[in-house]
Specification:
198 residues; 7 helices; mainly alpha; two-stranded antiparallel sheet
């Protein structure tokens, strides 16, 4: 029970942090990248960990619950951004302008998250049920190999299409795939931190 709660909370927290950080486009190894990519890739392995300890139905519920929580977060940020600020406190107008675009990022994130992570969940389930329960690291690697490019493609075009130059969008896509792939390799051992659901 406790491992399920901990990995579920970590999953939702990483989703929310990624949505907020994605408002900033940074340079990474010479490529443009949304800063949410620094934390978001962890959600793939965390989702696999939830799947391992709680099963496929609980994982699907978690994916949809995280999407709902992110909508509430974006709504709160929008409300805060349009409320009259106390101008005696510094940078209030700037704060509102930073938070307001979170709607588009959140929409992009939710669309990408739900589609890609449902695909990831099914790839993980098929691997465990049809291929083998052995080589847990490989089930994470295989499921993430399907979901990472799909997630990145959906996210970058909904989040930045028509706003940023096409070359920058493709650079963000490539950086996302590289960082998410590298994070998958680094986080693979995490699957061994939780026990298989009996």
């Amino acid at each position: 029970m406790i491992p399920t709660i901990l990995v579920s909370v970590a999953y939702v927290a990483a989703q929310m942090l990624a949505d907020v950080a994605s408002l900033r486009v940074v340079m990474f190894a010479g490529m443009s990248m949304d800063a949410g990519t620094l934390v978001y890739p962890l959600t793939f392995t965390l989702r696999d960990m939830v799947h391992k300890v709680a099963g496929v139905k609980a994982t699907r519920v978690l994916i949809l619950a995280a999407a709902g929580i992110n909508v509430v977060m974006a709504g709160l940020f929008w409300l805060v951004s349009v409320m009259k600020p106390d101008m005696s406190v510094g940078l209030q107008a700037e704060f509102g302008r930073v938070l307001a675009p979170v709607w588009r990022i959140t929409l992009a994130s939710i669309c990408a998250e739900v589609v890609a992570e449902m695909i990831d969940t099914e790839a993980y389930r098929i691997w465990v049920e049809k291929v083998t329960k052995r080589y847990q690291w490989l089930r994470v690697l295989i499921s993430n190999a399907f979901s990472i490019p799909i997630d990145s493609l959906i996210f970058v075009w909904i989040a930045f299409g028509g706003v940023l130059p096409t070359a920058v969008i493709w650079s963000i896509f490539l950086a996302n795939v590289i960082v998410k792939g590298a994070t998958t390799l680094i986080s693979l051992p995490g699957i061994y931190l939780v026990k298989e659901r009996s």
